[in-house]
């Protein structure tokens, strides 16, 4: 029967085949966060490595279950794998398919021969903080965007209609001018309206620049890899904790620390940490102790350096490294969650203050105007 349909309706058959890839179990607008998508790819790669399967086929099938930009990102990754590119090279050539710390961990594990243990650790020790924060931030940003559009409409209306009308009324009622001019809140509203009108092109360029920082891949990666660690101490501490996890994997596998430092200094995505690791490696080659070198370049604290150095056996040292990294990660996760809960209330208070400011300015103007007209 199917052969008969293909013979009679070849065009219809080709149309169905073209539309088939669009029929997926995932919705068009997926609720999955970036962290959830990257974790699914990580599990696919771990399964392919463990079961000795072709990762290109699995990644291509996974791409068909996603939408929009991440789908095409996975398609590019699958194409590079089919062309014979090594997995870690294909991941580095496909930015944002996996997060920078995970790609670095895979690269480091490939160099050290600890890929099985690294996959198990990355999957088993996954912290859901990133997923929760991204999900909450998505809802908060949607709320802020909607409220911001409403605020823009209010501002546009009062700039194009209400403020000019008030200024005209001020000219018509000369007796009320003194009362109106004494209304400082109204004067501030008029001044801000004139400022927005005068500098609107510059404000628009600033908003476009902020949008590019968060949405355009190259600019976002430049900010994330080169500037975020310098400007935000929490980001720097989190990356130091991830660095300790990698050193623990290397030490557990019996790799020399100087070689681990050289590998991380070559491949680490953060330029600041890469420079510090180069300094620490040079000091180690000159006879300095590894953990003291890390403390001197401020990748770990002096107390953490002493705790790691005082561990007598390799097992104790690995346990101490993981313990310190885990403690730092949990501490930073709690701090990030506490800060994220303030985002939406601050946005609500900002909009409420904006509306209150406009309402009070208009009320003050009307009050002064009515009071002046009521004079005998």
TrEMBL record:
GO cellular component: plasma membrane
Transmembrane segment boundaries: 141-167, 199-217, 342-363
Keywords: Cell membrane, Membrane, Transmembrane, Transmembrane helix
Record's bilayer topology term: Multi-pass membrane protein
Lineage: Bacteria, Pseudomonadati, Planctomycetota, Planctomycetia, Pirellulales
Pfam family for this entry, one: T2SSF
Compartment(s): Cell membrane
Family per record: Belongs to the GSP F family.
Name of this protein: Type IV pilin biogenesis protein
UniProt KW NADP keyword: no
Residue ranges annotated for the Type II secretion system protein GspF domain, each copy included: 42-164, 244-362
């Amino acid at each position: 029967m199917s052969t008969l349909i293909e013979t009679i309706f070849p065009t219809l058959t080709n149309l169905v085949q073209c539309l088939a890839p669009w029929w997926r179990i995932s919705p068009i607008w997926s609720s999955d966060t970036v962290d959830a998508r990257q974790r699914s790819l990580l599990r696919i790669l771990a399964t392919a490595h463990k079961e000795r399967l072709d990762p290109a086929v699995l990644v291509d099938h996974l791409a068909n279950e996603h939408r929009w930009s991440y789908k095409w990102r996975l398609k590019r990754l699958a194409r590079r794998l089919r062309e014979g590119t090594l997995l870690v090279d294909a991941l580095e050539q496909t930015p944002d398919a996996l997060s920078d710390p995970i790609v670095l961990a895979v690269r480091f594990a490939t160099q050290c021969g600890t890929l099985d243990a690294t996959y198990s650790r990355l999957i088993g020790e996954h912290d859901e903080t990133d997923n929760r924060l991204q999900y909450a931030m998505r809802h908060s940003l949607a709320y802020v965007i909607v409220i911001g559009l409403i605020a823009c409409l209010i501002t546009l209306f009062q700039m194009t209609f209400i403020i000019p009308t008030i200024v005209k009324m001020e000219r018509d009622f000369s007796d009320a001018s003194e009362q109106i001019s004494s209304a400082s809140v109204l004067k501030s509203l008029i001044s801000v309206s004139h400022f927005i009108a005068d500098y609107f092109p510059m404000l628009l360029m600033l908003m476009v620049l902020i949008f590019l920082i968060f949405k355009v891949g190259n600019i976002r990666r430049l900010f994330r890899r080169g500037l975020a660690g310098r400007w935000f101490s929490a980001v720097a501490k989190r990356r130091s904790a991830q660095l300790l996890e990698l050193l623990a994997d290397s030490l557990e596998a019996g790799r020399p620390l100087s070689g681990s430092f050289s590998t991380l200094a070559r491949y680490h995505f953060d330029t600041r940490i890469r420079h510090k690791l180069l300094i620490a490696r040079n000091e180690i080659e000159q006879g300095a102790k590894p953990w003291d070198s890390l403390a001197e370049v401020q990748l770990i604290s002096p107390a953490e350096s002493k705790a790691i150095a005082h561990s007598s056996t390799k097992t104790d040292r690995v346990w101490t490294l993981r313990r310190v990294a885990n403690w730092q990660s949990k501490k930073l996760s709690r701090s990030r969650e506490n800060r994220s809960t303030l985002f939406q209330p601050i946005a609500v208070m900002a909009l409420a203050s904006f509306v209150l400011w406009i309402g009070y300015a208009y009320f003050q103007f009307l009050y002064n105007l009515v009071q002046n007209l009521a004079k005998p």
